[in-house]
Structure formats: structure tokens, C-alpha cells
Specification:
There is one protein chain. The protein has a domain of about 220 residues: Rossmann fold (3-Layer(aba) Sandwich), CATH 3.40.50.1100. Helices cover about 40% and strands about 15% of the residues. It is built from 18 helices and 13 strands. The protein is globular. It binds ligand F0G. Ligand F0G binds next to helix 6 and helix 11.
């Protein structure tokens, strides 16, 4: 009998399959990325079940915005109606991950030139460790637990490491984290240290750290929890399930989000492809991925150099020569949005596949555009970290270029919490020249001086 879930190389002409329990980040035959594949087609009647689970009745796996959708990511093959069976296997931060939903923000809508009712923003910073990563760690750690793993590793710009460290602490697993020294925001470093991960700061950047992690996976058999891990991406699909369930399965026209290592791009595309193939949806939204200008490999390759998925026949020569040029020029990623300061995204091919499935686009945003966009989210009484504001800057650009039409609906994903990086926010406000700066008044410690400024 064919297993209910298995792993498969993403390249159709290879298509090599592997057992669910293999620890694998690349195909043995052709070296490409892996997908988690399901043999069965979940029934659309589950839409009602997902709704009912929002009244969780004390079940943390119904509370969890990831495991509420367990039938759609059921690689462990659990009986989804039997609490004793699934609670033994599924990993959760006590049901706290993925409890997010989309909001309307009037000032942001005005800023990007859209009608408020057409723009939704989903705050993934509301996750327990303050970023969308908790969605994916719930599933990656479930797979790690199935394999009896005692040690996980990742490279990180800070959010992956925070989330991995928190899940590892909860599961009694050791987490080893590689990061570029001075390349991560203070809040993220604080979390990663405090949750007890072993932190290795290398004198390099994220791309260097990722290279070492890949090497160590092969040499030491470390279990990697970066988005190279196909099981992590299964959890990240639930961001799309949540917004669809919230919108009562009415399909938005666009989903807009930042692109760094391109894990979300890959996961979101897979989510919609599967729902479409299962007959749950008739239409797919278009994906718009926003790169930081100083970390714009995806933009360069897709938008400028015309590299596409091409049914799985990606032009590797263009990609190779792009990377050779980068190396020869000694170019490194450079942006204030440190979360997405990445020039060699590991999920590049899966992300190209998503663009093909969804008629997607890639745009880029400057640091100034992201800083102003971030400040506007703050002005709306919410907040997000700088990389997340790439979403707002991207929407603004697409609206002004009339690629997003006035009557279209857009969901933007805000990926991380504003308090991850307070330094960037304070610096912005301390500089009166910035468009939305809010500089504090410093006054003498007496009533006259205080009254004088009011
Ligand atoms: N937004 C935030 C806040 C992030 O932390 C990241 C990635 C992204 C967007 C990009 O997402 O990789 O799926 O394209 N952060 C990783 C980390 C690299 O190590 O925390 P992606």
C-alpha cells in the first residue's frame, strides 16, 4: 500500500520519491529541493469542521491556527478526530501558534491608495515568538519528533532562530543556531539566547551561515529547521488557510509579502496549488513577492533576467552566471531590513514554481520606502518589523503602477512584530527629516517649559 504521505523531488522530469522518515533537504539523484506529497484528497466538507474548531473546547490542537487544519498537513498520518492519537505526535506551543487573522487598517489603505474594505493585513507578528516562523516550526518539530531527533540546527537572521529555540526548549531538544555577527536585530538575539539555543556567530552574513549549515547537515547529520526543510513549509501553508477561512473562502485577487529565503513564496504557492487540485477552490490569487533593493536576487533573476520555472526546466546557466558575477564583484546583501538581508535564497526554484502557478510578480522596495511604510503601520496603532513593511511598500508600488486594479482585493502578510527591532524604529523617529518621524520633545524639568511646548 502506498504511504499516505511521502517526499518527492520538485523537478517533474526527476520526480524521485523518498520515505516520509528520511532526513533529506535535497534529492539524491538531481540535487533539487523536496516536496511533501499527499496520496489522498481531503474533502471540502472539512471547511465546516475548521470553522467549528474555532470553538476549541479546550483542545489546544483546535486552538492552534496550524493544527486546526490538521487534515490538510497530515504527513504524520494521525487520526485527526482522536485526541489521544494526535496529541501524542503533533508539536505545539500549547496551541498558541498561528492564532492570527486579517485586519483592515484605514490609514495604511489610504497610504497605498486603496479602499480600506479591499485591503486586508494579516499580522503574523502576533505569533508567540513574534513572527510567522512559529507556523512552520510546529510542523518541522513534529517531523523531528517522528524521527526521534535530539538536535536541530538553523542559519538565521533572527526570527527562525527565535522560533526554533522556543520550540526546542519546549520539546527538550538542543537547538544550534548560526548567524552573521552583528547581522540580527537585538530583540531576536535576546530571544534566541534567552530560550537557551547554542548561538554560533560567524564573521559573515546569513548566506555564509546558511552555507555552513548545509555543510553540517551532510557531515554531522544535523536536522535542519530552515525553510529548506519541506515539513516546515507545510506549517507555513496554514497562513493561507486561515485567511481563506476568515474570508469565508472568497478568494482575494492578490497576496503580497516579503521575500527573503523564499520559504513563504514556496509554501503559499503549494497551498493554493493543492487546494486547486483537490477541487476546493476555482481560482488562485496572484502572488506578489517584495525583495529589499539591497537583497534582490529574486527580483533580478525573475523580473529582469526572465528566469522562470518553465514547467521544471529552469535555466540553471543564467542563475549560475548571476551568482558567479555576484562573487566576482564581492557583492553582499545590504539592507536595513535585516530579516531579509539574503542574496542566495535557498528556495529559489520552488518560488519560481509558485510564480508560474499563480501568475505572480516580484518587485523591490528601497530601505526608505520600507521605513516610511513601517511608520504608517505604526500610525495605524499596530506595528510590524521593517522587513514586513516591504509588503506595504510593494502594494503601494503595484497600485501606483496600476498592476493592482482599484476594485481588486489584496491580502498583505506582515511577517514580524515591531518590537523585534526597536532600534530601527527609534532611529527613524529621532531624525526629523523622515516623512513620518515623531521626534520626542526634550524639555527642562519645570512647569513653564512644559507648558511652553503644549
Ligand atoms: N519577514 C521576516 C520578518 C523574516 O524574518 C523573514 C525571514 C522573511 C520575511 C522572509 O521570509 O525567507 O520565507 O522569504 N527570516 C529568516 C530568518 C531568514 O532567519 O529569520 P522567507
Amino acid at each position: 500500500m502506498k504511504a499516505k504521505a511521502f517526499q518527492q523531488c520538485i523537478i517533474p522530469s526527476c520526480g524521485e520519491t523518498y520515505d516520509l522518515h528520511a532526513l533529506r533537504t535535497a534529492c539524491e539523484k538531481c540535487g533539487n529541493l523536496m516536496d511533501v506529497r499527499y496520496a489522498s484528497k481531503p474533502s471540502p466538507t472539512l471547511k465546516e469542521v475548521f470553522d467549528e474548531r474555532r470553538n476549541h473546547r479546550g483542545d489546544i490542537f483546535n486552538e492552534s491556527g496550524v493544527w486546526r487544519f490538521r487534515e490538510l498537513i497530515n504527513f504524520p498520518g494521525v487520526d485527526c478526530d482522536d485526541y489521544d492519537a494526535y496529541s501524542n505526535i503533533l508539536v505545539s506551543l500549547d496551541g498558541a501558534e498561528g492564532r492570527t487573522k486579517p485586519f483592515h487598517l484605514t490609514r495604511v489603505a489610504e497610504y497605498v491608495g486603496m479602499r480600506s474594505e479591499n485591503l486586508w493585513l494579516q499580522f503574523e507578528g502576533d505569533n508567540p515568538t513574534g513572527s510567522f516562523k512559529d507556523n512552520g516550526m510546529a510542523t518541522a518539530f513534529t517531523h523531528a519528533k517522528m524521527l526521534g531527533v535530539k538536535r536541530v540546527a538553523c542559519a538565521s537572521t533572527g526570527n527562525t532562530s527565535s522560533s526554533a529555540a522556543a520550540f526546542a526548549a519546549n520539546e527538550g531538544i538542543e537547538a544550534i543556531v548560526f548567524m552573521g555577527e552583528g547581522k540580527i536585530a537585538q530583540g531576536k538575539l535576546a530571544q534566541t539566547l534567552d530560550y537557551g539555543a547554542r548561538v554560533i556567530q560567524i564573521r559573515g552574513d546569513f548566506d555564509d551561515a546558511m552555507k555552513w549549515v548545509k555543510e553540517l547537515v551532510t557531515r554531522k547529520g544535523l536536522y535542519v529547521v530552515n525553510s529548506l526543510n519541506a515539513f516546515r513549509l507545510e506549517g507555513q501553508k496554514t497562513m493561507m488557510y486561515r485567511l481563506l477561512a476568515y474570508l469565508k473562502w472568497r478568494m482575494p485577487d492578490w497576496i503580497v509579502f516579503p521575500g527573503g529565503n523564499l520559504g513563504n513564496t514556496s509554501a503559499f504557492g503549494k497551498a493554493f496549488k493543492e487546494l486547486y487540485d483537490w477541487g476546493w477552490i476555482k481560482k488562485k490569487p496572484r502572488m506578489a513577492v517584495v525583495n529589499a533593493e539591497g537583497a534582490n536576487t529574486f527580483y533580478k533573476l525573475f523580473t529582469e533576467l526572465g528566469v522562470t520555472w518553465n514547467g521544471g526546466r529552469v535555466d540553471d546557466d543564467i542563475i549560475d552566471s548571476y551568482y558567479t558575477d555576484l562573487e566576482q564583484q564581492g557583492r553582499k546583501a545590504k539592507t536595513k531590513a535585516s530579516a531579509i538581508e539574503i542574496l542566495q535564497p535557498v528556495n529559489l526554484k520552488k518560488a519560481l514554481r509558485t510564480l508560474e502557478y499563480t501568475d505572480g510578480v516580484v518587485v523591490q522596495a528601497s530601505d526608505k520606502e520600507m521605513l516610511d511604510a513601517r511608520a504608517i503601520v505604526g500610525r495605524n496603532g499596530f506595528g510590524c518589523e521593517l522587513a514586513s513593511a516591504a509588503t506595504i511598500a510593494g502594494i503601494k508600488q503595484l497600485v501606483s503602477e496600476e498592476r493592482i486594479q482599484p476594485d481588486e482585493t489584496v491580502v498583505g502578510i506582515l511577517t514580524g512584530h515591531m518590537l523585534k527591532d526597536p532600534d530601527t524604529i527609534i532611529q527613524y523617529h529621532l531624525s526629523p527629516g523622515n516623512t513620518f518621524s515623531n521626534t520626542p520633545h526634550v524639555v527642562a524639568n519645570d512647569l513653564q517649559s512644559i507648558l511652553a511646548i503644549l
